[in-house]
Amino acid sequence: MKHFFYHLFVPHERNNYRARLLHHKSLLFFITLIFSATFFLEIIKINFPSVLGVQNNITVEQLVSITNKKRAEAGLPPLVLNPNLSKAAELKAGDMFAKDYWAHNSPDGITPWAFIKQSGYNYVYAGENLARGFNSAEDVVNAWMASPKHKENMLFKNYNDVGFFVGVGKLKGEDTILVVEEFGNQGTRAIASNKSGQNVSTSSSKKIASPNVFAGTTYDKKPLLNSLSFSLTVDKVLLAIFIFTLLLDMIIVERKRIARLVGHNVDHILFLMLIMLVVAVFSKGVII
Q: In the sheet where 286-287 sits, what is the strand order?
C-alpha cells in the first residue's frame, strides 16, 4: 500500500517522473468516477432521502437569540417571538415552495403583507427578510447584517415582534433550507411615524388579499448524510488532493532538476484554486 501511494503521488523514475495521479489515464478515470458517483448519489437522494438529503441544523430559537444579540449590541430592545408572525412566515414559505419562486412578491402579485394579515396579525409596521441555502443560524443572521437593507430590518427601532419559519423543500429545482423572517409592530412602542407603515427589503408595497394561500409542506427529518455539506466536502477534498499532488510534483522536480516536457504546474494549481474559490462562493446561501 505504501508503494501504491508513493507511485500515485510522488514523481520518480518508475512513473516517468510524473505522479501517477496526474497521468492522463488517471485523470480520465477520476472524471468518470466523479460523474458516476454524482449520478449514483442523485439516485440515493431521490429514492432514499433518509440516507442522503438536506439536513436542517437551523432552529427558530437560535435565530431569535442571535437576532436579539445583534439588536442588543446596537442598543435596541429585543424582539418577541410572535406566533401569528411565525404563522405568516410559514404561509409565505409554503407559497414559495408551492409556486416555486424566490422573491418577496409571488408571481401572481401576493405580497408579504397578505400572509401577515391572513395570520391575524394587525400591523402598523411590517417587514420581511428571506434566506436560503445556509447551514447555520449564525450564517443566516450574519448574511442579513452584512446587507444594508436587511440590516435596516434587523435593527429597525419600531419593530417589537418577529416570526420565523425554517423548512426544507425544493425551490428553483434544488433541495434547500428556506428561512423566512417576518417583523411587525401592532401599534405599541412605536418611536417614529411612517406613512406606509412598512420597512421592508422590497420596494413593493402592494397589498393583495390571499384567503386561500396554500401553505405547502416541508420536511425536517434529518438524513444520515447531509447532501449539501457532503457533496461540498467531497469537492473540496478532491481539489485539495490534486493541488497537493501538483505542488509536490513541482517541488520534487525543481529540487532534482528533472528535465521533462510536461510542465505548467503553477497554471494548473492556480486554476484549481480558482475552482475551489468558486465552489466556496456558490456554496454559500443567498438572501433577498
A: 80-81, 161-171, 174-185, 125-132, 286-287
pLDDT tens digits, 70-97: 999 999 999 999 999 999 999 999 999 9
For the whole model, what pTM was predicted? 0.72
Q: Are 58 and 166 in contact (CB under 8 A)?
A: yes
Q: What is the DSSP string of 188-238?
A: SS--S--SS----SSS-------TT--------PPPSEEHHHHHHHHHHHH
Question: Are residues 243 and 12 in contact, defined by beta-carbon separation less than 8 angstroms?
Answer: no
Quote the radius of gyration of the chain (alpha carbons, Å).
Answer: 25
